[in-house]
From TrEMBL:
Belongs to the TRAFAC class TrmE-Era-EngA-EngB-Septin-like GTPase superfamily. EngA (Der) GTPase family. This is GTPase Der. Associates with the 50S ribosomal subunit. GTP 2 binds at residues 234-241, 281-285, 346-349. The gene is der. Residues 24-188, 228-409 form the EngA-type G domain. One of its GO terms (molecular function) is GTP binding. GO terms for biological process: ribosome biogenesis. Keywords: GTP-binding, Nucleotide-binding, Repeat, Ribosome biogenesis. GTPase that plays an essential role in the late steps of ribosome biogenesis. GTP 1 binds at residues 30-37, 77-81, 140-143.
Amino acid sequence: WREAEAIAAQLSTVTESAEAQELPLIAVCGRPNVGKSTLFNRLTGSRRSIVGDEPGITRDRIYGEIEWAGRDARIVDTGGVIPDDEALIPSEIFRQAQVALEEADSIVMVVDGRTELASPDRELARLLLRGGKPVFLAVNKMDTQELLAGAENFRRLGFRNVLPISAEHGSGIGDLLDEVFASLPPEEVDEEPTEVMLTAEDEMAEDEDGPQPIRKLRTHGEYEQRETKIAIIGRPNVGKSTLLNALTGSKRAIVSPIAGTTRDAVDEVVERGGHSFRFVDTAGIRRKGKTKLMAEKLSVVMARKHLEAADVSLLVIDAVEGVTALDANIGGYAHESGRSVIIVVNKWDLMTTARTDGKPPADIKVYEQQVRDALKYLDYAPLLFISAAEGKNVESVFKKVELVARERRKRVTTGQMNRFLEKVDFQKASVPMAKRIRIYYMTQAAVAPPTFVLFTDKDVKMHFSFERFLTNQIRDNFGFIGSPIWFKIKARNKK
Ligand code: GDP
Ligand code: GDP
């Protein structure tokens, strides 16, 4: 075991950039087979660097980068070296805990929710809890609703924060990340919003919780993401699996799972032009329900699940049937999820020359307007007309995905934002006088989705029309095509 450690130490020549090393670090610990690497893969996608890879050693520590709610962090899977000898497990557990306690800002311990607690679990828990860092217990493999209650049994380990998750299915991950990220040290402030209302600044500083720290601004290029995760969502029979086949089809470059794993092969990845398009949970896209009602329910559940794992969603509509209540329902989830949306009107071949219902060919402009009217809240979503079955216009899906993926990660500097704000004529907003708020300044606090913090005079929720007006102004100036825009209010005078 010592020898293995020595080799491992040699292999740990971490090749991360200095910038990455400044990011807060989250460590994932747990005994073998509880699902650490599954969780790790889900959290990082392919953006990870394998530090050691030698026969006899699966890997040493694996680092990856993760972004949540607009903040970046590093994540380390400490469980890389897996001794086969049972007797060695406690020492390995000990080593993991030490790595985590020394380096990490926050620690996630993973247990298998479907098995009894083992003594290494208790041992590790004890060490971690004594360490004084924020610790979270992720009870994994809670794949179904029925299993969730069982997670409570693991409170016996002594953790205050116990979160049921399914690393394989992606459920519970958002809640886990919310908590873990909230425990990280505050971000550095390295740009003050100085452009507008300089006078307000001193007062702001005295404010109870003051202005939100503004995260480090980087140039757009660094945000260029090489992989985009795509969810294909929609009700039964709109053509989701046909579209998936058309998109991945024969041009599919990789269908293989991430090296060393065979189980998360449910994603399919298409590489083109230096960009990876990862279609999430493709097994789920192809799943068919038994009865019509069951299939419909399943389509909603799957949409929500797929959205959780995605950056961009393709909301597929059946051209012949138009937007139904169920489509609108699923579209609503997409909108609320903060993912970018592209509306894909499929089976357009049936609406053109040879319509089976004998009606004249549909007018694309009129049709688009109908879709827009039925899905008002998705006014930012590009709309495509395709025929998945005939492969028509399928190519444009890739281009649009790349566009909206870039747009959702776009960052406007505080300077640009304030110059913009000075130009906006808020008198034009059709909002009752009493509902108006004054914006002193505004800053983009997060990307994906773009999130703006408004420093205002009143601690009130923005009036719907005011929010709409502001959103439209931002879109006219900065685009953010395909992505919802989120706002947070920070009032100067608390009511
Ligand atoms: P590690 O040794 O802790 O890195 O564990 P792995 O990530 O290799 O997972 C061990 C096994 O548990 C694999 O067969 C996974 O497919 C399985 N697994 C991981 N997460 C889940 C989950 O959420 N649900 C279920 N049912 N199985 C899971
Ligand atoms: P899913 O349930 O959303 O995955 O839908 P499927 O991909 O299984 O498609 C449902 C039906 O619609 C199948 O009979 C497909 O052949 C058909 N279909 C899918 N795309 C098109 C299309 O672009 N044009 C036409 N005419 N039929 C299509």
